[in-house]
Amino acid sequence: MFGFTKTTMVDRADALPGRDTPMPVPERHEVLGTPLTPPYPEGAQIAEFGMGCFWGVERTFWRLGAENGIITTAVGYAGGYTPNPTYEEVCTGLTGHTEAVRVVFDPDRISYTDLLKVFWENHDPTQGMRQGNDVGTQYRSMILCHDDAQRAAAEASRDAFQPVLTRMGYGPITTEIVPATPFYFAEPYHQQYLSEAKNPNGYCGVGGTGATCPVGVAPADS
Question: What is the 3-state secondary structure (H, E, C) of the chain?
Fold first, then answer.
């Protein structure tokens, strides 16, 4: 497409067509041993975030542990147009998706606000269509909200964090806070990519700004 760059959001009409068949994924989480796909336990809630390369992001959340309310995590593609895309298609920038992580959690043990604190502190939400050396729309910062309460919490946490970043010399937050879109699971080899069983020496350069987000509390039993 003439004039298109990977840092420009593709128009819906120009997005790749995709397919009707979902990506098959492993039945259980490599580390937690819990199901990757629904149905999830009664009372569980879903949070979804884009924070750059999803390998390191997923590990950040699963390491919170079952004892702190994490039921399962998975990586996939969200916020775009192409149904059931492949990783190669997402990398072209022609699907509109960001690399996303799904966190299924027990709200009686860890709150959505706790997860937002992890979100803000573990990437740079001011970089637009990139995260560090990873450049393109697939690496943009995004919070995908599953209800009005999540959206209100996300917006409040953003507004609380911006003054902290400004004092540290960072620019405006570019994180998109949007209603949840379809979450398309990524290929099996991406799921828990940085686990000891798959890539014990693997690396993913997801990092934060060093700023502490002034929202949230410690997990309930920590």
Answer: CCCCCCCCCCCHHHCCCCCCCCCCCCCECCCCCCECCCCCCCCCEEEEEECCCHHHHHHHHHCCCHHHCEEEEEEEEECCCCCCCCHHHHHCCCCCCEEEEEEEECCCCCCHHHHHHHHHHCCCCCCCCEECCEECHHHCCEEEECCHHHHHHHHHHHHHHHHHHHHCCCCCCCCEEEECCCCEECCHHHCCCCCCCCCCCCCCCCCCCCCCCCCCCCCCCC
Which residues does the annotation mark as catalytic? 53
Write the pLDDT tens digit of every residue in 163-198: 999 999 999 999 999 999 999 999 999 999 999 999
**How many structural domains does the chain have?**
1
Range of the domain at 91: 36-190
Say what the pTM is.
0.95
Task: Kindly give, in sequence order, each residue whose CB lies less than 8 Å from that of residue 150, ignoring residues fewer than 6 positions away.
Answer: 47, 112, 143
Task: Supply the CATH number for residue 141's domain.
Answer: 3.30.1060.10
Burial class (CB in 10 A: 0-12, 13-18, 19+), 182: middle
